[in-house]
Each structure stands twice: as structure tokens, then as C-alpha cells.
Fold this sequence. Notes:
The chain is mainly alpha-helical.
Amino acid sequence: MPTKSTxxxxxxxxRDAITMLMADHKKVKKLFSDxxxxxGSGSDEEKSAVVEQICQELTIHAELEEEIxxxxxxxxxxDGDLMDEALVEHAGAKVLIAQLQDMDPEDDLxxxxxxxxxxxxxxHVEEEEGEMFPQAKKAGVDTPDLAEQMLQRKTALLQEMxxxxxxxxxxxxxxxxTGNKGSRxxxxxxxx
Length: 192
């Protein structure tokens, strides 16, 4: 399996923005599946680690789309409704992400919120991959250039969040929630 790159130009030129976004979709879908497996038998620490990673991945993904990908697509395609709906879907996901970041796995509705977030993300992914991405390709959006911009921005976002991009997802899972980077429990840090 290829190693993850933080932002090399060669890596950006070997892919395009749509390929990158679809890889993110696949990664998050697997994380939601991992969470589903933990619902009945996983420890709170395991659930928390997976949800923390889901929130981080979705936060970065949404920023890249909103700052770089969506403006380029909006300029190239004539489907303002599709682009507006994508932004509204992002806003809804951000609300659930914020709520989950302030919760613990034993809190009421924790599992339900993760499940609903997953359902919303699945719907969003279907629209992007089924409608937006084909329109962007047809319109000739410069996806290799966008990939380079997105990789650079992703590196900056990871640094802002205090995440070492060289860490694998598995490494973050194994570390559990000890590597919080301040993303969880902003107000209730006393709870473990």
C-alpha cells in the first residue's frame, strides 16, 4: 500500500482532486463501518478514538472542498442548486461533529449521532460522486491543479490541528484518545 504524502508536487500531479476526494470518502466510510462494529462490544476508548478520527477527517475534507474544490466547480458548471445543497449538507455535518466532539461515548445519543452523521455523509457522497464529480469532469475542471492546492492546504490544516500527517490512521487508533490535540471536550476536559 502506498505511503501517505503530505503535499509533494509529484504526488499531486499523479492524481487529481476528484481521486483525492473519493479516497477520503472511502476512508471515512470505513471508519463509520469500524464504529458500527464497536457499537455492541467496543470499549468507550475505542469508540472515542474512531469518532475523533471521523471528525478530523470530515473537518479537513469539508475545508478542502469549501475553500478549493467547490469554488472551482461552481465556476465551471451551471448547477447552483447542487453546489448550494452541498454547502448546506456540510453545515449540517459540522453541527453533529461539534456535538460529538463535546460528548463522551457513554453520553445519551452518542451512538445515534454517529449513525446519523454517517447516513448524512453517505447521502452527500452519493450526490458528489454521482452528480458533482461527473459534471466537474465534463466541464474540464483542472483537477490536477486543484489536487496540488488541496494537498498544500491539507498539510496546513493538519499542522493547525496539531496532527502529524506522517501518522497513519492505524497509529492514531492505537494511540487511542491520548493524542487529542484539543479537538475533544473543549469545555469538559475533566471528564475522561
